[in-house]
Amino acid sequence: MMKLVEPEQKTLLIDNYLAKICGNINVPSKVFLGRITFGLMDKEARTMKTQFKMPEYDKLKRADCMAFGKEIMANATSKI
Fold this sequence. Notes:
two-stranded antiparallel ribbon, 3 helices
């Protein structure tokens, strides 16, 4: 929702909750804030977002995504 995720929230919701449900602990994790791009939505979703006056935003940074992908690959190949 366009707000930064604090380290405590990441630890609580991803590391201590989601990772345990999935049975994966000590694996790379990162929170990406995402984006809302009306041009990529179907008409119904676009209408709903505009009715709620949600702005378009893009908080994804390609460099961050690529760095996280490299971290995942390094982690995966070290366990083979």
